[in-house]
Design brief:
Layout: H1 6-12, H2 18-22, E1 30-41, E2 45-56, H3 59-79, E3 87-88, E4 93-102, E5 110-127, H4 133-142, E6 150-154, H5 158-184, E7 188-196, E8 204-205, E9 228-240
Antiparallel strand pairs: 1-9, 2-5, 2-6, 3-5, 4-5, 6-8, 7-9
Length: 241
């Protein structure tokens, strides 16, 4: 972690940190430190985002296929206990696809023609009972979903855990500042400012594995998410007495 002692060095050299004043930093000697903390916790919810799509020259047929599979996905979501507010399924999107094709009816064999109508519909599910994740996945495949690459894990109490991580990051910063002050032979003063540098975090991808002792031909795999990290970073300026 990068640590600066600009104010202290300026004081020892008999200089006034004018540039620091212009930047809104302390005009008296100071210590700048960065603090970091990360909580590793087990997730208790999952976000499952998927896209149902079909391309066909018959736009009605393509849309009927997508709508039929979407209805199965929504029915499955309700079956595994997902509330209506946690089911997001916007209307379908239809757009034509064109491409170069061989046309034997014209002298020029290659023609730019309509090759099909592409129909898509996205569905996002919020699963708050991870014990039913395996049932959900099996049902999605049965409903015709072929890609589950966008599944992420999260905590329902993320905001509280984020706040706890910030507090631990401040403690980490104080320990570093106290150590620097002791090494430099100065007395650590009060805090001048604290800046939250935490980057916005989102849910973590799901890891799939079999539980220890599970047989290779077990009917249902075990979905093990492991731990997710909820971290915080702060920058703290301490004055030097």
């Amino acid at each position: 972690m990068r640590t600066a002692l600009y104010g202290l060095f300026a004081s020892l050299l008999g200089l006034t940190p004018l540039a620091a004043v212009a930047d809104g930093l302390p005009s008296s000697p100071y210590i700048q430190v960065n603090g970091h903390a990360e909580l590793l916790v087990a997730p208790d919810m999952a976000y499952v985002s998927l896209t149902l799509e079909k391309t066909d020259l018959d736009a009605k047929a393509a849309r009927a296929d997508v709508e039929d599979r979407t209805a199965k996905v929504i029915a499955l979501a309700r079956k595994v206990g997902i509330a209506e507010k946690d089911i997001d399924a916007p209307s379908v999107t239809v757009y034509p696809q064109y491409g170069w094709v061989v046309d034997n009816s014209v002298a020029i064999k290659r023609a730019y023609k309509l090759t099909g109508h592409h129909v898509t519909r996205g569905v996002t599910l919020t699963l708050r009972d991870l014990s039913r994740y395996g049932e959900l996945v099996d049902g999605l495949f049965d409903a015709g979903v072929t890609d589950l690459g966008n599944v992420s894990m999260d905590r329902s109490d993320r905001a509280g855990l984020q706040q706890k991580a910030r507090g631990l990051a401040v403690v980490d910063a104080h320990d570093k500042a106290a150590g620097l002050a002791q090494s430099a032979g100065v007395t650590l003063g009060p805090i001048f400012s604290i800046n939250d540098q935490s980057a916005a975090e989102g849910p973590r991808p799901l890891m799939l594995a079999r539980a220890a002792g599970a047989s290779a031909d077990s009917a249902a795999p075990e979905y093990i998410s492991g731990k997710i990290g909820i971290g915080a970073d702060v920058t703290v300026y301490y004055l030097i007495k």
